[in-house]
Amino acid sequence: MAATASPQPRSSYPAINTLAPGDRRVLNENELAQRWGVSPKTLQRWRSEGRGPRYLKLSKRVSYPLEAILLIHRTN
């Protein structure tokens, strides 16, 4: 019986089981604003207008998944 090659991952992002416990998968509003060189108010305005990257909101905390940020960065 011939050995079959393992399938290639569909995504260039590491699988969840390959992440170290300290690896973060999200950025907060201030981290993203600093990374992109915009103010946090700009990100707030974009959210209210339905623009910008996908975000998660738990109570008052807003987080941006890294995959959404990287996806937007690749398309620009």
Description of the molecule:
This protein is α+β, with helices and mostly antiparallel strands. It has a domain at 24-75: Orthogonal Bundle (Arc Repressor Mutant, subunit A), CATH 1.10.10. Helix content is 37%, strand content 14%. It has three helices and three strands, in the order βααββα. It has helices at residues 29-36, 40-49, 66-75; strands at residues 26-28, 56-58, 61-65. It has a three-stranded antiparallel β-sheet with strand order 1-3-2. A hairpin with a 2-residue loop joins strand 2 and strand 3. The model has no long low-confidence stretch (mean pLDDT 80).
In short:
With 76 residues, this protein is of the alpha+beta class.
Essential attributes:
37% helix; 76 residues; single chain; three-stranded antiparallel β-sheet; 14% strand; 3 helices
Order of helices and strands: EHHEEH
Distance between the amino and carboxyl termini = 47 Å
CATH architecture label name of the domain at 24-75: Orthogonal Bundle
Strand order of the largest sheet: 1-3-2
Quaternary organization: single chain
Structural class: alpha+beta
Number of strands: 3
Mean pLDDT figure: 80
CA-atom Rg in angstroms: 17 Å
How would the global form be characterised? globular
Model regions low in confidence, pLDDT < 50 over at least 5 residues:
none
Number of helices: 3
Helix content: 25-40%
So what's the CATH class of the domain at 24-75? Mainly Alpha
Quote the CATH topology of the domain at 24-75.
Answer: Arc Repressor Mutant, subunit A
Largest sheet: 3 strands, antiparallel
Beta-strand proportion:
5-15%
